[in-house]
Amino acid sequence: MEPVMEIRQVTKRYPGGRGIADISLSVNKGEVWGLFGPNGAGKTTLLKILTGLSLPDAGRVSLFGHDIAQQFAAAMSKVSCLIETADAYGYMSASRNLKLAARFYPALPKGRIDEVLELVGLAEYREEKVSRYSLGMKQRLAIAAALLAKPELIILDEPTNGLDIEGIVWLRGLIARLAKEEGTTFLISSHGIHEMEQVCTHACMMSAGSVIGQGSLAQLTGGGMTLEAAYLSAIQHQEKGASIVHA
């Protein structure tokens, strides 16, 4: 089976030495990958490269077998993403915002907008101006936009921002259901190890721009440790010049 996402030795450096170095990762259909690490670990830099918002200095990224640098449209045709902020036009309703987004998908089935608004719990507020939404409601609207075209790969950067406990539980359930029932693949960047550990099937742990451990949760947490404990163990390995990588 060809990986949905293939990252090979990707490097991106900014002035001052920040960035990422020699990142490799392979993601298969239906897997839910958590991308974990502290601020400055390089998570958002990697996500921007994966979505074409930034170019790497070296390395290669392919999505669904298409090189993102050479076949961008084909590579991104089955991908949806939410990076950094949940942007929407505040003077418009949720329904109107999604209608604007739907223009990019001419083959979108009739009724899909109502379907995703129901899915994220905003159907009751579909005609309300987004400027009146809470931060959590805006985040739900952004997730609705990401789901609009039924993508096969969804990339989410801190998707629990602004969500209360009920919203976080709802999001975990939505991700698990889409992965299991529709084979949707997820790459999720998050600080919330405890929150995402309950839904992720795999994890890629980063620190100081490098991968310090990756593999299935069962492999990384073997012996009954938590993912947080596995991360701290990986930090110790990094200090000794090693990383924890499972095939």
Attribute tags:
247 residues, alpha/beta, 7-stranded mixed beta sheet, 4-stranded antiparallel beta sheet, 9 helices, 11 strands, 25% strand, ATP binding, ABC-2 type transport system ATP-binding protein, ABC_transporter-like_ATP-bd, ATP-binding
CA radius of gyration: 18 Å
* Secondary structural class: alpha/beta
Profile the largest sheet.
7 strands, mixed
For the termini, the CA-CA separation is 15 Å
SSE sequence, one letter per element: EEEHEEHEHHHEHEHEEHHE
Average of pLDDT: 90
Overall shape: it is: globular
Low-confidence runs: none
* Secondary structure tally, helices: 9
Please report which band the strand proportion falls in: under 5%, 5-15%, 15-25%, 25-35%, 35-45% or over 45%: 15-25%
* Helical content band: 25-40%
**Oligomer classification:** single chain
**Adjacency order of strands in the biggest sheet:** 6-7-8-3-9-10-11
Please tally the β strands and state the result: 11
